[in-house]
């Protein structure tokens, strides 16, 4: 019985057996993080892979060790941090294969066979890719997020109201004071006839805005008319 079958069969063999080298690794980051269908555990593992994915999605070849050390081991002495980084990469390669993380000159990069829902969404934005918070709350690249945000709003404008609401809910978690996202979400809830949900979403938004000294119109209807 091959390694791949042991993984699919649900046994614990994946803990000690490397992922088959010829298999693509599907990296899900638009919600709870998983790689190759397995939930990603460990804060530093997750942060490392997300950081490398952000770099690739932004068009960078990779990240230098010093950047990764600052991300994962802030304040640690350089030699010690570099040793810990190498151990972390070794552990990921043991589980998922040597090419899950590649070395390109002096840089570390996400392996070519790692395919992500984030990059797929940017190329062809479909709301169904979103299952939860963006990068599970680990994102640091605001320019990349701005691209994702624009694509998400484009996607929300092309799909049925129920799909749009699901997507816009997650976008609003990232941009809680963005009136355009709030307005789109309210309009789609209105199209669904979900008036109680519309009122609740707007009430929560008013409270958020008030906490930072901003005011929204008294009612969702007035807010939508002003838009």
Estimated structural class = alpha+beta
Helix tally?
10
| Secondary-structure element pattern, one letter each | HEEEHHHEEEHHHHHH
Low-confidence stretches: 1-16
What's the end-to-end separation, in Å?
61 Å
CATH third-tier fold name of the largest domain: Arc Repressor Mutant, subunit A
| Mean pLDDT across every amino acid position | 91
Strand arrangement across the biggest beta sheet? 3-2-1-6
The fraction of residues in strands falls at 5-15%
CATH H-tier superfamily of the largest domain: Winged helix-like DNA-binding domain superfamily/Winged helix DNA-binding domain
The major beta sheet can be summarized as:
4 strands, mixed
Radius of gyration, Cα only, in angstroms? 21 Å
Number of domain modules: 2
Organism: Thermus brockianus
Protein name: Bacterial transcriptional activator domain protein
């Amino acid at each position: 019985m091959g390694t791949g079958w042991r993984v699919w069969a649900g046994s614990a063999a994946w803990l000690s057996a490397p992922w088959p080298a010829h298999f693509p690794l599907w990296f899900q980051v638009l919600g709870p993080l998983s790689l190759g269908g397995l939930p990603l555990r460990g804060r530093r593992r997750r942060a490392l892979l997300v950081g490398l994915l952000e770099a690739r999605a932004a068009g960078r070849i990779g990240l230098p060790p010093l950047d990764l050390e600052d991300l994962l081991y802030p304040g640690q002495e350089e030699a010690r941090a570099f040793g810990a980084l190498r151990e972390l990469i070794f552990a990921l390669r043991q589980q998922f294969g040597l090419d899950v993380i590649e070395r390109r000159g002096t840089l570390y990069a996400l392996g070519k066979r790692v395919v992500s829902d984030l990059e797929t969404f940017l190329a062809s934005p479909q709301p169904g890719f979103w299952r939860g918070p963006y990068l599970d709350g680990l994102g640091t690249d605001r320019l990349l997020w701005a691209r994702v945000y624009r694509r998400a709003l484009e996607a929300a404008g092309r799909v049925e109201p129920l799909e749009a609401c699901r997507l816009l809910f997650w976008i609003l978690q990232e941009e809680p004071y963005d009136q355009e996202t709030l307005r789109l979400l309210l309009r789609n809830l209105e199209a669904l006839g979900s008036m109680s949900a519309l009122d609740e979403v707007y009430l929560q938004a008013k409270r958020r805005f008030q906490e930072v000294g901003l005011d929204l119109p008294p009612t969702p209807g007035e807010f939508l008319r002003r838009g």
